[in-house]
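Data deposition worksheet. Section B asks for the primary sequence of the deposited chain exactly as it was used as input, without tags or linkers unless they were present during the calculation. Section C holds the resulting structure in token form. Section D is free text for depositor observations; keep each observation to a single sentence. Incomplete worksheets are returned to the depositor.
Section A, Depositor: J.P.
Section B:
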Amino acid sequence: MKDAERNLKPILLVTVDGGPDENPRCPKTLSAWSSVFIQHGLDMVIVATHAPGQYAYNAVELRMKPLSKALTGVTLPYDTYGTHLNASHKTIDDALESKNFQAAGEV
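Section C:
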């Protein structure tokens, strides 16, 4: 696919698992892909989903499998420097939350 000056036209092809956060049939997701199309001056955007039950063949899912298995049962500490949550588990101290998050990443 080339334009009049024989340059390749920019296209984007993306495969997604079709979950609720990236389902291309959802209006919010369509709007986001439209923004990508416009911002990057693309000629075409194709968003493909895996068929139901076929996400096991998704290349990203296959690469994440060993990590998921290794992290099964691991609980990261969230209150190393004290709690940043109220009784409803809502963040009340952003700085403390960030400090606790960094400490959890060092485990």
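Section D:
The chain has a mean pLDDT of 87.
Residues 9 and 66 are 38 Å apart (CA to CA).
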